[in-house]
Amino acid sequence: MSSDTLAKPAAPSPVPARPDGPTIVPRRRYGQRVAAVLVLVLLGLVINSVLRNRAFQWDVVADYFTSVSVLRGLWLTLWLTAVVMVLGFALGTLLAVLRLSTNTVLRSVSWGYVWLFRSIPILVQLLLWFNIGALYPQLFGIRTVNLLGPVAVAVIGLTLHEAAYAAEVVRGGILSVDHGQTEAAQALGMTPGQRWRRIVLPQAMRSIVPAAGNMLIGTLKGTSIVSVIAVNDLLFSAQLIYHRTYQVIPLLMVATLWYTVVTSVLGIGQYYVEKYYARGTGSAR
Any alpha helices (H) in the chain, and if so which ranges? Predict the structure, then answer.
């Protein structure tokens, strides 16, 4: 018998199966489309009103936007924000570690600090520090009257305030790490420092970074409150100018635009930092 007779016939090509049910067509949401058009129309009207309203005096805004006094105030605002965030998170991390301690006294002191400084409004805290000489004329034999200048008061007040919130951010990030991973690292013979550096912190940063970024932006805008104690920040610089020229709205717009620009830059930086710490989790975007 020849090999041709033994060859099996070729199998027929598979026929694509037809769908049993009807074709699914996405629902057309006409209400959402109409709402989107209305929102765009209203947004266009608002932008047109702002740009064409002569009361904003955009030519004055352009003249003062890069003036020396405004840029000097902007620099102080940025410096104050950086110093407060660094010191606030340093103190906040210490408070978070104390809060997670097994020692009742340390845990209670940390809790009490967070409770107290989150309960008192930041403006009240600044005014209390500004008038510390009236409360305690002497501390450890040092006269406190006129001891602290406005900038020092701003740094102390804002740092102590931010540390209370930073402590909760750091504590939440540490608690988000599965305890079993630290136990596994301990079983592998890692030292406590190695466990914190290689296991806890990289994972905790995924929870800490978004909240810390929001705190950074909030601190930047919150520094404007120091103008009440005559700190020459961005807002206070704008106020000094419009008290002299009576051009209130244009100078407020100068401060508003600078806050918007810096906040936008910080938001972009926050996005990339979050993306860095989210790598390998499938949540980076």
Answer: 3-6, 30-52, 58-65, 68-99, 104-119, 122-130, 132-135, 150-175, 179-187, 192-194, 201-222, 234-245, 248-277
